[in-house]
Design brief:
It contains 15 helices and 19 strands. It has helices at residues 12-19, 27-31, 45-53, 110-115, 146-164, 211-222, 233-240, 276-285, 292-298, 310-319, 327-331, 358-361, 370-375, 404-422, 468-477, and strands at residues 72-81, 84-87, 91-95, 118-124, 135-142, 179-183, 192-195, 198-203, 205-209, 260-261, 325-326, 335-341, 351-355, 379-386, 392-400, 438-442, 450-452, 458-460, 462-466. The structure holds a DNA duplex (12 and 12 nucleotides).
Length: 478
DNA sequence: GCATGATCATGC
DNA sequence: GCATGATCATGC
């Protein structure tokens, strides 16, 4: 029988229903006898679902896969970790055509035309399985709730803004919150493309959805909530009108985790022209010059000044969050860092990151490395400065992402570090004085605290650090 | 005075 | 038990 007789290709819910026929099965379970050898292998699972299950030829054009229903089919992996099922990687959408995308408004953009309504298929990735044996776990329609769409639209504007200013080569995934622009292509050099407002070549990039954002879709789905955000008047109105506060409450989708709470419950909380980050910074600016103790008193917090999560608790209070986590920061994978300046304005301490896992870094590629992934995140820097009485006072807050030219230095640093470790050299890493951005430094319980190496020896635990001087420069540039 | 090494306190 | 955020101690 012709496959499209099994579903109504004009009806999203019929497609969703048909897709759910994959649940708890693998492609081999369903289509084993039809599978040719050429199909076994890697990376083509999405195409196989399209051809085998839905019975149509995969396209890569600018229209949604199911044009009449306006539905784009996406197949993406989840994995098991200690917390349960989570997204394995970012969800990659269409490649950004630098020469075209900037000509449109968000509403008419390639991204929105293709991806406004998604049919998401999540399968369970397992290390040593063939792709046709992966089991499908979630099949659902997805439309971005309005509070999220607002952020996604701002993200899209940020990305397109870089194209318009001739800076497509300086786009970083950390520039944006939910919608990213990830690199796509075999090697960075091969995938270089022209951009309209600069002679510089820019690495090819695709729109993508951050991995942590997907966790919310997964969590919601596993709880059995498959409600599709309605395409109502409010939604349509938002798409048409730029940055216009709306009067009607947003349907939203509430809290996906019980201990998580959004800062912005309704897009009417945005003033005209404001982005999400503008709102956050405005909230913080009200508390500039408050001392730590004054903030604790102001918000009636029951913490002492030595508590390790002190700064996070203060940040949450300023943002009006009483639950454990901040929904938008979670989804956007925003990293909060506090910085304490001396009264003179200097910065004594460098910023430390995780310990270098000696056995892991030697097998990493740059773009899946710990260091690359950390540095391409969006950071939220909360800066205190000591006053004459040595009391730390909130000086300012800012969002920050490492500029791409600095990321190139970080790449050199990472390459050198990896080479050293491969060679069993644990003494000659980049140091604070040598270079201007990052260095390796010990971080452990004490000097007897050791970690195994690829050489099966034990070495002192050391971490990735960003140089204090560099951090200070970034703060001053803001 | 500053770079580097070292370690503490907390909380998961 | 240990990673992490934070900060101290030393020695050039």
């Amino acid at each position: 029988m012709h496959k499209d007789l099994l579903y109504d290709k004009k009806d999203p819910f019929s497609l969703e229903n048909y897709a759910q026929g994959l649940l708890n099965k693998s492609l081999r379970d369903l289509y084993g006898k039809d599978l040719k050898n050429e199909y076994s292998g890697k990376g083509k699972l999405g195409q196989l679902v399209e051809s085998l299950h839905f019975g149509y030829k995969p396209n890569s054009n600018s229209e949604p896969d199911f044009l009449e229903a306006g539905v784009e089919l996406k197949t993406t992996p989840i994995k098991k970790n200690s917390k349960g099922l989570v997204s394995k990687e970012r969800l990659v959408f269409n490649i950004i055509d630098f020469e075209e995308e900037y000509k449109f408004s968000f509403n008419e953009s390639s991204f929105w035309k293709k991806n406004s309504l998604l049919l998401l298929l999540f399968y369970l990735y397992e290390n040593d399985k063939c792709d046709i044996d992966y089991i499908f776990k979630i099949a659902r329609l997805w439309r971005f709730p309005l509070t999220d769409l607002k952020i996604i639209k701002d993200d899209w504007n940020t990305i397109v803004g870089k194209i318009k200013s001739g800076n497509a080569h300086e786009i970083s995934e950390g520039d944006t919150l939910y919608l990213g622009a990830c690199t796509k292509g075999s090697t960075a050099l091969k995938s270089n493309r022209n951009q309209p407002f600069s002679t510089q070549k820019a690495p090819q990039r695709a729109f993508s959805l951050k991995s942590k954002y997907l966790n919310f879709i997964i969590s919601k789905s596993l709880k059995g909530d498959f409600n599709l955000t309605k395409l109502d008047d409010e939604y349509l109105h938002f798409l048409k009108v730029d940055n216009n506060p709306l009067k009607e409450p947003s349907s939203g989708y509430g809290n996906l985790f019980d201990n998580t709470e959004p800062i912005i419950k309704n897009i009417s909380e945005y003033k005209k022209g404001q982005t999400f980050e503008d709102v956050i910074l405005e909230k913080f600016s009200k508390y500039y010059d408050y001392s730590e103790q004054e903030l604790i008193t102001e918000f009636n917090l029951n913490i002492n000044l030595k508590a390790k999560n002190k700064n996070f608790v203060i940040v949450k209070s300023i943002l009006g969050i009483s639950k454990e986590k901040i929904e938008e920061f979670e989804k956007a994978e925003i990293e909060i860092k506090t910085i304490k300046l001396e009264a003179t304005g200097t910065l004594k301490e460098s910023m430390s990151f995780a310990q270098i896992k000696y056995k892991e870094i030697v097998n990493e590629d740059w773009e899946d490395s710990y260091w690359y992934n950390k540095l391409t995140k969006r950071f939220f820097l909360v800066i205190f400065q000591k006053d004459k009485e040595n009391i730390a006072r909130l000086k300012k807050a800012m969002f920050w992402t490492m500029p791409t030219q600095d990321l190139k230095v970080a790449y050199k640093f990472w390459t050198q570090t990896k080479t050293n470790i491969k060679n069993g050299d644990y003494e000659n890493f980049w140091q604070l004085k040598n270079h201007n951005i990052c260095h390796v430094r010990p971080k452990a319980t004490n000097s007897l605290d050791l970690m195994e190496t690829p050489q099966n020896t034990l070495e002192k635990k050391k971490s990735y650090w960003l140089n204090s001087e560099y951090i200070l420069k970034q703060i001053q540039n803001d």
